[in-house]
Amino acid sequence: MTDEHPFPLKDRSPRPKGNASGRIGRTSRSADSPQLAGASEVLHTLIREFECLPGIGRKTAERLAYYVLRVPVDEAMKLAYAIRDVKKTLRNCKTCFHITETQECTICSDLERDSSTICVVEQSKDVYAIEASGSYRGKYHVLLGAFAPLDGVVPGDLTIEPLLGRVRQGGVEEVILATNANFEGDGTALLVSEKLKAIPEVRVTRLARGMPSGSHLEHVSRTIVSDALEGRREMHDS
Ligand SMILES: [Zn+2]
To answer: Which of 80, 133, 173, 238 could tie 225 with a disulfide, CB 3.0–4.6 Å?
Structure first.
C-alpha cells in the first residue's frame, strides 16, 4: 500500500503570495506575534499551515490553532481525518479532470448527456455552479486553473492538450468557453480558442456577457449562469 494515488487530485491554483515555496513565514520567525515567542514549534507549524489557506491571515490562523489546541482530541482529529480522506479518496476524472471518487466522473460516464458539446471551465466548483443552473446537459472539461503568467500559471499547467485530444477524437460539435468573466478568464478563453482554431470543424463559443464583469462563475446566480449559456457567442469568425 502506498499513499500515492494513481490520479492524484491536482490543484494548479496560484499559491498564496509568500516565499518561493508559496509558504508564508517559513523562513522567518520575526513575523510571529509577540505572544507566541517561546511557543512550541509544533504550534508554530499548525499556525503557518492555517495561514497558507486562502483568505486566512496571521490573526485568524492563530485563533484557529488555539481552537484546535482547546477542543477534545476526537473533535480535532475529525478535521485531520476529513482532510486526509479528501486527499486520498478524490482524484481528477481521467477524461474531463472534474473531481471524482472513481476513474471517470458521473458526468462523463452518463450516456444520457450530450457528448457533442463540451463546456470548458476553470475549476470543478464551476461545474457545480453550471449544474445548479439546470440548463446544461452536455459534457465538461476542467482546465484546473486559469492562464495567469504573473502567478506562474503557464498554458502547460492547464489541461488544454487533453481537451484538444478529446475534440480531435471527433463527435464534438461545440466547445463552450465558460471561464470566469475576469482578466484571467478572458485570457484563458482567448488562449483555448486560438488552440482550437487548429480544428476548424468545431464551433467555439463564449458565455454571454450577462455575467457581471470581473465575476466568478461560482458566485453568480443560477439565472445569470443560465442566461449566459443561452446567449453565448461565437469566438471564431465563420
Ligand atoms: Zn469526467
So the answer is: 133
